[in-house]
Specification:
By secondary structure, the protein is of the alpha/beta class. Helices cover about 35% and strands about 15% of the residues. α2 (about 40-55) links the parallel β2 (about 35-40) and β3. The longest helix has 14 residues, at about 40-55.
């Protein structure tokens, strides 16, 4: 499993790669999955997961934060809100592996697990980028 971080609204990783460049630079290692974690909440991560899902010949993983940190460095997104946003990943067949990063509590994971039970994992493309 390989996971990167989209740092902000620029849509680039910490090394400056676009999601497609990130995928292209790593997929030749034939990982189980490539995805993104941290830095952004589930809603903000969606467009970048769409890119990976469209082109990845392997699984796609997502470990979003429980929203964006507030002025006190805390995460205000409730488990039900986060799970509802992750449902969009599932409805659009974007992911194979899901979890949570900063601000995620056991209650968040429980809500994500419950909403995920009615879905099958995304089918990776049969060819690489």
């Amino acid at each position: 499993m390989i996971s990167g971080t989209i740092t902000d609204a620029s849509g680039r990783t910490l090394s400056g790669q676009t999601p497609l460049a990130f995928l292209t630079s790593l997929e030749h290692f034939n990982p189980f999955s490539i995805g993104f974690n941290c830095a952004l909440g589930a809603k903000q991560l969606t467009p970048y997961l769409k890119v990976l899902s469209k082109y990845a010949g392997c699984g796609v993983s997502a470990y979003p934060n429980a929203g964006l940190p507030n002025e006190m460095g805390e995460y205000d997104e409730s488990p039900s809100i986060m799970a509802t946003q992750i449902k969009e990943y599932l409805d659009n067949d974007l992911i194979n592996v899901i979890g949570g990063c900063c601000g995620t509590t056991p209650e968040h994971i429980k809500a994500i697990s419950e909403i995920s039970q009615n879905y099958s994992p995304r089918k990776p493309l049969s060819k690489n980028v």
